[in-house]
Predict the 3D structure of the following.
Amino acid sequence: MVIKIEHKWGMVVDLDKCTGCNGCVVACQAENNLPINTKDLFMQKRAFEWIRIERYWEGEFPNVKARYLPVMCQHCGNAPCEPVCPVYATYHNDQGLNVQVYNRCVGTRYCINNCTYQVRFFNFWEPTWPERLQNQLNPDVTVRTRGITEKCTFCVQRIRRAEITVERRERTKLNDKTMAARNFMPACVQACPTNALMFGDQNNQEDKIHGYFEELHNHEGHSDSRGYRILEEIGTDPSVIYLKKVDQFKMEHSESHG
Amino acid sequence: MKLTRRNFLAWAGISAMGAVACDVFEDELRVQSPVALPEDLVKGKENWYATLCGTCPNSEGVVVRVVEGRAKKVQGNPNYPTNLGAQSARCDLGLQQLYHPDRISAPLRLNGEKASGRFDSITWSRALDEVSKELSARDGAVAMISPPMRGYSAVIADEFIKAFGGKRIEFESLDLKTYRTAIKNVFGQDIQPHYDIGHAQYVLSFGADFLSTWVSPTQWEVGYGEFRDSDHSKRGIMTHVDSRFSVTASNADRWIPIAPGQEGKLALSIAYVIIEEGLYPSNVDISSLTSGQGLNALAGYSPENIGSQLGTPDNVLGSHSVSELIRTVAREFASHSPAIALGGGTAGASTNGLFNLESIYLLNHLVGSVGKEGGVILNPEPPIKELKGYSNSHTLTDIEELIKDIKASKIKMLFVYNANPVYGSPDWSGLEQVLNSDDLYMVNIGSFVNETNHYADMILPDRNYMEDWGNDIPEPSAGYQTVGVQQPIVNPLSDMDPRSSSDVLLTLAQDSGKDSSLPWRSLEDALKGMSDELFELNRGSVSGTTKQEFWTNLLRQGGWWDKSATGADVSDINGLINKITVKSKDPKLSGNGEFYLVPFLHNSLLDGRNGDIPWAQGTPDPITSVAWQTWIEINDKVADDKGIREGDVIEIRSGAEAIKGIAFVSPAQPPDVISIPLGQGRTVGSAYATDRLDGESANVLNIVENNKIEGTDGLAWAATTVNITNTGTSLRIAKFEGDYESREVGFTEGEELIKTTSPGDHDH
């Protein structure tokens, strides 16, 4: 039986627009109750960033570039993290989301080992906030405890609210415009000052991102468009498309190092 | 067996009895609901309120999510003209400011000697009584230091201080006076213009890190997003000239490294090529710009003459010489219309900063970009006469004057209003010593203890912007009249007792009988009066048939704007080039150091104002990914030569002063430049700002030497040279880079993480 999936959420990241400003990073931390990234967490290489900006160097002075790459959970259609979870804490839902069920997670960290994109985070310690700061915590998002793996959800709490408010109560079709108008876009997308991040329904032809996915699927990577997916050769079928950075001027003899 | 309802119930009953008999826990018998996400919604109605953000100098329009009386999330207000729904990495910081564990909860009165750090918590009535008495005793000798302010809070502060015979200084660590003066001299008005980057074809920027921290970064980033609209064949080109590889430099198509202070020469050399090769549009009056001298007005600025003086390497993006590069950029700039030239930051921070900035902004007149879509859009006067469309331009020189006045007992009482000038000015200014005088009574209005209110006699806790009224004329606006409105969206927590600082000033003036020019009972009162005035204008974005309805809609929208109320070009271009070239001078540098010192504003801490906020500390810097620490950017080859490795603690010395920081070795750093962010090196404040090891946190302002900018007296903070020494110790650097090993894939072909293309190589 073919099940018709109504929504299939996806994201498009335009690398030519991303300035690396970190607006998305802070917005995500505020929305999703991420633990405070203390100095110690950085020292331990355990800082939490569901979305992070990777910076790559290319070239040498004076012909040098810093390339920015926002990386979040790619919500892979064929996610390497899913089959290795012994308790089904991570699974693929019927809207194309790679979901982490916190109260099932037993902390084996197999998913973290298997994630191609290193976007899963483990709570080695109980996250703590000073009492007053707890007033800011988002009641829509569970605070994860020690021993739990967490990751980007595409702000599923906002998607759920959108479904309830826009679809059920207002009987309006859910698309990128109706979601943006009511603050239901993922926090990173809503924050991005240059509109480098776009979110929407891959199945909805009216959504801005639809064309990018259609083109990618139709041409299987041989199109002239800027769309590609990171490490897609591995076969993960990510739900995030990146649009190539446009180099106005070519650098000669450039060399890249990470 | 056929499954009927009767059979089902029978079996269910037997199973349950069996389970109980076998001692199965009751919980396990319950039919569990399908596992929904743990993010399942909770009860509680959410509200989004429009207001103005208070964590950046340019207040952006924001909407704040409030659930059960608690602020949860800040987002850009989609309707607000300057940021159009976008936000920076700093917008959400207001939430942690609001609920910060170290926020001052009640008035604090000094108990003991100054700077003893001993304060008693007292009631507001006692605090205001004491301040009133001191005001009466010191009438005529009162001054105030605040950050740049606009709107009615500025009007109230000004009238208050005038009533007591004093003066208010608007203090910024890296002041914008030189920029504001250049704008006045080139475009004829005090109000800052809007740069319509979204519609531009070319942006030529000098020194201003406008995509990160300069003036109104979110506004420029919104434009930048449209500027890079690669899928619609209108991708703009951007060249950035800077002494440091900043966030803006990293996003430019071409970065031209330059020695600090040489930006003006480069700009005039570009002007030279435009005139020499006749690249200007036909409606540009070159004769008028040059007083009839034509190219002779720029004699000496040919690229061939200038190229070797700039400190720019010869081989920038395939150029063979700097003169060739100048000609290429001039031709590109003139041929891609509309084009914008803008400058600030280090370009305006050498001793010749005013000359540099005027030379840069002049380029807009040469290519006919002033007052044109995609160019420099001049902003109009605000719709309310009482309100100014610009901040006052004060500098460290004004602080130095104040210090003299305090020493001469001309000023005996000082209000410091949400500012931290002791941290924000170099040690040599002497402000700290003068504040430590028993003859001076200092009242500090703010939310956190800091280096300045360490010397206070009285600290009055201010309301957070989410708890208070306010308004703003954006500086700059988006090309048309805009009035932003801030409203209280949450009440202070029950254990907090802050008061609106404007209301406190009004109360003090009323108590002293000096409120003749302050006709309002509260800031809210003033705003309602403003709303009525806007209502009477009968135009703009806010609808309403009655004043009350208009007021409600004004708050709901977060402000008032009228897209038809635009500014006009009032520039006087007669002899402009001649007026600029007479100011031409080489920058004066302090010391004989090996490196230029280039301080810069931190992406999230800015000048240190956000240092108490954990999110601001924990957000990695875009270029280096360092958090929580002071890093020293040093060129990789230079570091190799000097045996310096990442993490080494480096001493940076200018003249008599030295600071220490952690080396960050960068392939993009010019070999002759050391750059250091502001924002760290706090000594008094919450643990988030101050709890650091020796060598990992320093205030770079303390090694900036005393050089002033000619014509504005601003601090020439890019005119210091330094020497560096490896201290021999090293610390772990708190950086995000390398946390995740995915960076190590992507080396083999086919696993390329960041793919690039050339313009025209793609379609969509």
Observations:
- Chain A touches chain B through 104 residues (CB under 8 Å).
- The helical segments of chain A are 23-31, 39-43, 110-114, 156-169, 176-181, 187-191, 210-219.
- The first strand of chain A starts at residue 9 and ends at 14.
